[in-house]
């Protein structure tokens, strides 16, 4: 079981986290939401009044920031400087800020090292933008999960509405997702990119149960 390393990459809103959590639960191993770590960096910058596009000042934060991951009853919790920020990092402002700070090599260097350390010590399902290409290039199974922009905006709309955090129209969410796609795909360092040996899956119109069944079949064949 310790040899299991599963990387799930793809654009924002494709369903990576939901799928990765289910796969990890099915296998009884750790799920690591790498995006939550970048959100924590963005949250600290926002709280300090730092523009998340300001590389110099955001990078300085990495010298004095403590981000840790803990698991309570199988659920991942993200701590920022000792504070549980698992809920605070789920706003639209933090989401866009995470896309900005994740472009900075100083931020990525620190967080990738932490992610790799966790994977060295545990069988893991990890999702993000560059897991298969950068963080876990030797993962035994790599998935590149996609979905149409409209489908991703619809999911985000429903998620925010359910949590009582909806502060955007559907069209505004579409525009934000398109902007984030551009940011993630064109950034200089570790851009969103499908690994050469990744299996691409379009989740548009597919239920989570269908996707889990597909990937569990791959897991049985690979491991």
UniProtKB/TrEMBL annotation:
Lineage, broadest ranks: Bacteria, Bacillati, Bacillota, Clostridia, Eubacteriales
Cellular component terms (Gene Ontology): cytosol
Bias-annotated ranges (Basic and acidic residues): 180-197
Pfam (any one): Cytidylate_kin
Transmembrane residue ranges: none
Keywords (A to Z) from UniProt: ATP-binding, Cytoplasm, Kinase, Nucleotide-binding, Transferase
Example GO molecular function: dCMP kinase activity
Reactions the enzyme catalyzes: CMP + ATP = CDP + ADP; dCMP + ATP = dCDP + ADP
CDD domains (alphabetical): CMPK
Name of the protein: Cytidylate kinase
């Amino acid at each position: 079981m310790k040899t299991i390393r599963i990387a799930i990459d793809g654009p924002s809103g494709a369903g990576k986290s939901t799928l990765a959590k289910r796969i990890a639960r099915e296998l009884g191993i750790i799920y690591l939401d790498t995006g939550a770590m970048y959100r924590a960096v963005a949250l600290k910058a926002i709280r300090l009044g730092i523009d998340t596009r300001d590389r110099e000042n955001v990078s300085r934060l990495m010298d004095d920031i403590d981000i840790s991951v803990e698991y309570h009853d199988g659920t991942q919790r993200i701590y920022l400087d000792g504070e549980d920020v698992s809920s605070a990092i789920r706003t639209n402002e933090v989401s866009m800020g995470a896309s900005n700070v994740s472009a900075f090599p100083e931020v990525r260097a620190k967080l990738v090292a932490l992610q790799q350390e966790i994977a060295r010590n545990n069988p893991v399902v990890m999702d993000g933008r560059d897991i298969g290409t950068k963080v876990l290039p030797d993962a035994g199974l790599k998935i590149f999960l996609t979905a149409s922009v409209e489908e991703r905006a619809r999911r985000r709309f429903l998620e925010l509405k359910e949590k009582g955090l909806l502060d955007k129209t559907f069209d505004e969410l579409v525009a934000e997702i398109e902007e984030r796609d551009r940011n993630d795909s064109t950034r200089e360092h570790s851009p969103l990119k499908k690994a050469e040996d990744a299996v691409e899956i379009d989740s548009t119109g597919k239920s989570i149960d269908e996707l889990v069944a597909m990937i569990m079949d791959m897991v049985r064949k690979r491991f």
